[in-house]
Amino acid sequence: MIGVVGGGIAGLAAAYRLQQRGHDVQVFEAAPQLGGLAATYETPGDDIEQFYHHLSKSEETIVDLAEELGVGDRIEWRVGTNGYYVDGVVHPLDTPWEILAYPHMSLYDKFRLGMLTQGVDVRGGLPDFDAYDDLSEYEHVTVREFVEEHTTTSVYENFVDPLLDGKYGDRKDDISAAWFLGRVRFRGERDLLRGEILGYFDGGFGVLLDALVDAVGRENITTNAPVTDLTVEDGQVNSLTVDYDGTEAVPGADAEETHEVDAAVVATMPNVLESLTGFPCEIDFQGAICGLVTMEESLLDTYWLNVAHDAPFGALIEHTNFVERERYGGDHLLYVASYVQDETEDLWQLDDDEVRERWLTEIESMFPDFDRAAVSEFRIARNPRAAPIYECGYLDLVVPYQLDEEVGEGVYYAGMASEAQYPERSLNGGVVAGYEVADRIDAQVGARTDE
Ligand SMILES: Cc1cc2nc3c(=O)[nH]c(=O)nc-3n(C[C@H](O)[C@H](O)[C@H](O)COP(=O)(O)OP(=O)(O)OC[C@H]3O[C@@H](n4cnc5c(N)ncnc54)[C@H](O)[C@@H]3O)c2cc1C
């Protein structure tokens, strides 16, 4: 049997691909719910992700997976409108005339930024259309150095810096231009007259997760099953231990069970890999606090609103300006998104009620017409490892898919610290990581069986 540690998208994708290759697989998920960072909440209508999610047009593997699972026709490509809140004013930034009307950048700066977002290097007069193809070339250059060199200092200071600050706070000067370019590419598909094109499932990403779980088979997946040990003997993994600790969710289970394995896929954050195997990973992670506000009134005219000033959140994302609110029983749904670079930060230290109060007070001061009495529910999700900090030199820190030499034969890694999740983490990256590992296992275990 092949044991998969973690029932997020990466672990489930690995299990699915392994089964397709004829392997017997068991997935062990520590939480009661599957899906990891893509787990959902219930609403009166469709379920919705606890952390905001959408797809980029550039992501193909996850779309192919949806097709294979028979839910490809549930992907809808929609317009996700964008705005920027600067000095008390919301500036929509979707159509050419809205961009031209944006008052905080000169026409020349807009041209230089526009060319960069189209992937064209116009330095030196002759446009170069391939300059940004190989992101690894920009691995050791900071975003500031890159943007100043490839556009202007004022583009960096007036446009990019506040965005970077909202996402990376006091780590912003460490972030590589490779991440920035990857991000531009991820969010780069536009309808010239309407705005950004983003993908979403009719029914939410739970539709894909459910289809994947059905394909893998619920009988091959155990929830409430934290893996606490991987045993490697004579250089080969041979078992994993699950600590049920008498959990009521698995009646009759022993407090601890050991399962023999031919190979093990660790599809979790790298700190879990380290605790199971001792393999260290030096990637720093940022945490996320994400609120989902259910409201009787709409707050914004856009889907995504970046906030330029030093607010206790970096963006407000009104999901029901992207997907119609009728799908959620008629409620308006707004995400409040905040990242922390380390757990000592103020916001992380606050309890959920204090976070709610701080956020609502800020929203009231930004939007004087907002009435908190219109809020019927305010749910908060937190994760201390929501995304890697993509600092310069990041590629040297990624965890290999196959850890034969580092840990033992049969130990594989498909989590967020793998190369597939570079230069930005995504569900698509999780699927790719799962497949990469499954293909390697198939080659290795298959070869062992043939011996
Ligand atoms: C705020 C936010 C916004 C995002 N927006 C987008 C977006 O718009 N588009 C997009 O594509 N992606 C987005 N993502 C990223 C996406 O959610 C992740 O890349 C993806 O879900 C990672 O999947 P994973 O399986 O690698 O990890 P996870 O989802 O973290 O899954 C790992 C699983 O392992 C389990 N686990 C941990 N330890 C153990 C153990 N010892 N034993 C057993 N199980 C264990 C965990 O409980 C978890 O379920 C976003 C993420 C966040 C936080």
CATH fold type of one domain: FAD/NAD(P)-binding domain
Let me know the CATH homologous superfamily of one domain.
FAD/NAD(P)-binding domain
Q: Which CATH architecture of one domain is right?
A: 3-Layer(bba) Sandwich
Oligomer designation:
single chain
According to DSSP, the number of beta strands is 21
- Return residue spans where pLDDT drops below 50 for at least 5 consecutive residues: none
Q: Percent range for helical residues?
A: 25-40%
Describe the structure.
- By secondary structure, the chain is α+β, with helices and mostly antiparallel strands.
- Among the domains are: 2-78 and 203-282 and 394-450, 3-Layer(bba) Sandwich (FAD/NAD(P)-binding domain); 95-193.
- 29% of the residues lie in helices and 24% in strands.
- It contains 12 helices and 21 strands.
- It has a 7-stranded mixed beta sheet with strand order 8-7-17-18-19-16-20, with helices on both faces. A 5-stranded parallel beta sheet has the order 11-2-1-15-21, covered by helices on one side.
- A hairpin with a 2-residue loop joins strand 12 and strand 13 (236-243).
- Flavin-adenine dinucleotide is lined by residues 5-11, 28-31, 36-38, 51-54, 226-227, 267-268, 272, 288, 290, 383, 386, 415-416, 425-430.
List the helices and strands and how they pair.
Elements: E1 2-5, H1 9-20, E2 25-28, E3 40-41, E4 48-49, E5 55-56, H2 61-68, E6 75-80, E7 82-86, E8 89-92, H3 96-101, H4 107-117, H5 143-150, H6 153-168, H7 177-186, E9 190-191, E10 195-201, H8 206-216, E11 221-222, E12 227-233, E13 236-243, E14 256-260, E15 263-266, H9 270-277, E16 285-295, E17 304-307, E18 315-318, E19 332-340, H10 346-349, H11 352-366, E20 375-388, E21 411-413, H12 427-450
Parallel strand pairs: 1-2, 1-15, 2-11, 7-17, 15-21
Antiparallel strand pairs: 3-4, 5-10, 6-10, 7-8, 9-10, 12-13, 13-14, 16-19, 16-20, 17-18, 18-19
Helix pairs in contact: 1-8, 1-12, 2-12, 5-6, 5-7
The chain binds flavin-adenine dinucleotide.
